[in-house]
Design brief:
5-stranded antiparallel sheet
Length: 467
C-alpha cells in the first residue's frame, strides 16, 4: 500500500510539473532539448504552450540500431516500391546483407513474387537475361535483340509471352522451367475468358463460349433473336410507375454483360444505358436487358479481328450524343483508338456535366479521347514505338476550331478547365485533330442506338466479324 501511495504521489507530481510556470529562457531550453539521448530515450515535460504528454516507461534501443526493422523506400524512375527488411512471422530480427535486400516471408511467397524478386536487380530497372521492366505496366517485361523483340506479361499466376523470333520463346521456356519448375501450356488459345484464334493472316479474339454460358445461365437459349442490342427510337426512362423486378437478377445480368464488353464493343452502349437503372430496375429496363441477350443469341460468335497486314499507325475517333441521357440530359462520350485497322481501346461514358451546346459536348468528348491517346502513347514507348502527332478524328467543325484557335477562349470560359488540356497537347504536337464526316465516324457506335442497316455498317467498320 505504501508503494502504491508513493507511486500515486509521484504521478501527481509528474502531472503537476507539466503545467508548471517557467521563465521564457527555461522554456526555450526545454524546447530545444525535448529529447535527450544516452543509451536510452527519456520523455521530458513539454512547455506550457503544448498539449500535456502522457508519461511512459523508458524504452531502450541500446544494441538494436544495426539490426532494427527499417522501411526502405526504393525510388525508381516512375514508381516507388516499399520493401520492409525483416520477418513478421518470427520474433527475431534479421540483419540485411545490403540496403536493397528484400526478405520475404515464405508463407506469403507466390509465383509472381518469386519471379519479380529473382529477376529484379538492385536498381530495379535492369533485369537478368536481358529483360527490362515496363515503365507504365510493371508486370510487363521486354527483351530486345537487334530487330527482334520479346514481350512477357504477368497476370496473377499466369504468364503470356510472345516474340518475333521463335528461338527467343524457346529460350524463355527453358529458363522458366529450369528456375521455377514451370511448364508451357502451348500456343495461347484461351485467357481470362477470351478465346484467341491465331491464323497466318491475323488473330481473332472472341467470347462465344462465355456467351453460350450466360445464355444458359439466365435461361435464354430458346428466346427469339434481335438484330440490334437496343431500340433506336425508344430511350430508357426512370419509369417510376413501372412494375418492379428482382434487383439481384437484374444486377447479375448487367455484371455478366459488362464482362462481355471486353471483346464486344457492339453492345457497349446498350449495356451502359441499362446499367444506370440498377438501383430500382423496372420491367421496362429488364425488357431492354433481355433484348441485349436476344441480340447475343443472334450474333454469338462475333469478335474482333486483328489483321497481320495493316498499317501500324495510332489514330483515334471521338464523338458524342448531345443531351442523350434521358434522366438528366447529359451527353454521352464515345471514343475508340486503333493501331492501323486494329481496334485496341474503346470507351462509352456519360459526361459529368450538362453541356450547353453540341460543340461543348464534342469538346469534352475529344478531351477524354485525348487523355486515352496519351496513355497509349506512353504504353507503346515500352514496346519501342514513339507515336507523336496522333490523329484524332472529330465530326464537329466548331470543336476543331476551339482546339486549334486560342481566339475562341473567350467563348469557352464556361467549360471546365480540366478539359482544356487538349489545347496544350495540340500545341506540343502530341495530337492532331482532323475533320471526318459523321457517316464515317466509327465512334458513333458507342454513343446511341441505330437501325439495323447503320448498326451493321458500324460493326464492320470498327473491325468486328464472324469466324
Amino acid at each position: 500500500m505504501d508503494d502504491l501511495s508513493n507511486k500515486s504521489e509521484t504521478d501527481s507530481e509528474n502531472s503537476l510539473t507539466i503545467f508548471e510556470v517557467r521563465s521564457s529562457d527555461e522554456e526555450s531550453t526545454l524546447a530545444n532539448n525535448r529529447f535527450t539521448k544516452a543509451n536510452e530515450y527519456h520523455a521530458v515535460p513539454p512547455p506550457i504552450t503544448g498539449n500535456p504528454l502522457t508519461l511512459r516507461a523508458d524504452i531502450s534501443f541500446a544494441g538494436l540500431d544495426e539490426y532494427a526493422f527499417r522501411n526502405k523506400i526504393i525510388e525508381s524512375k516512375t514508381t516507388e516500391t516499399n520493401k520492409t527488411v525483416g520477418t513478421t512471422n518470427e520474433a527475431t530480427i534479421v540483419k540485411p546483407k545490403s540496403v536493397n535486400e528484400t526478405v520475404v516471408s515464405k508463407s506469403k511467397i507466390n509465383r509472381d513474387e518469386v519471379i519479380i524478386e529473382d529477376w529484379t536487380s538492385d536498381d530495379e530497372d535492369d533485369v537478368e537475361n536481358g529483360f527490362r521492366r515496363g515503365t507504365i505496366d510493371k508486370t510487363l517485361f521486354i527483351k530486345k535483340n537487334k530487330s527482334d523483340i520479346m514481350l512477357v506479361q504477368v497476370y496473377v499466376d499466369d504468364i503470356i509471352f510472345g516474340s518475333t523470333k521463335k528461338s527467343m520463346c524457346t529460350e524463355f521456356e527453358e529458363v522458366m522451367h529450369k528456375r521455377f519448375q514451370m511448364s508451357s501450356m502451348g500456343e495461347l488459345t484461351f485467357f481470362l475468358g477470351l478465346q484467341v484464334k491465331q491464323q497466318p493472316d491475323g488473330i481473332f479474339i472472341s467470347q462465344d463460349k462465355y456467351v453460350a454460358d450466360i445464355l444458359k445461365k439466365f435461361d435464354f437459349c430458346s428466346i427469339k433473336t434481335a438484330t440490334t442490342p437496343i431500340e433506336s427510337n425508344k430511350p430508357l426512362v426512370k419509369d417510376e410507375d413501372g412494375v418492379e423486378v428482382d434487383v439481384h437478377e437484374y444486377r447479375s445480368m448487367i455484371g455478366s454483360l459488362m464482362y462481355l464488353t471486353a471483346s464486344r464493343p457492339d453492345i457497349m452502349f446498350a449495356v451502359c444505358a441499362c446499367a444506370r437503372f440498377q438501383v430500382t430496375p423496372k420491367a421496362s429496363h429488364l425488357h431492354a436487358v433481355k433484348r441485349i441477350f436476344r441480340y447475343l443469341k443472334h450474333q454469338p460468335k462475333l469478335g474482333l479481328w486483328y489483321p497481320r497486314d495493316s498499317p501500324f499507325e495510332l489514330e483515334a475517333f471521338s464523338d458524342s450524343d448531345y443531351a442523350g441521357a434521358s434522366l438528366d440530359r447529359k451527353s454521352t462520350t464515345g471514343g475508340c483508338q486503333f493501331l492501323g485497322r486494329r481496334l485496341i481501346s474503346w470507351q462509352c461514358k456519360k459526361q459529368t456535366i450538362v453541356a450547353n451546346s453540341t460543340t461543348e459536348a464534342e469538346y469534352v468528348a475529344a478531351a477524354h479521347c485525348c487523355g486515352q491517346v496519351l496513355w497509349i502513347q506512353n504504353q507503346m514507348m515500352d514496346y519501342g514505338f514513339n507515336f507523336m502527332n496522333t490523329k484524332i478524328y472529330i465530326d464537329n467543325e466548331s470543336t476543331i476550331c476551339v482546339v486549334k484557335n486560342p481566339v475562341y477562349h473567350s467563348r469557352t470560359k464556361h467549360i471546365e478547365i480540366r478539359h482544356h488540356f487538349i489545347r496544350d497537347c495540340y500545341e506540343k504536337r502530341l495530337i492532331d485533330v482532323l475533320k471526318i464526316h459523321t457517316d464515317s465516324n466509327v465512334a458513333d457506335l458507342l454513343t446511341k442506338g441505330f437501325d439495323v442497316t447503320r448498326f451493321n455498317f458500324l460493326v464492320v467498320s470498327i473491325g468486328m466479324l464472324n469466324l
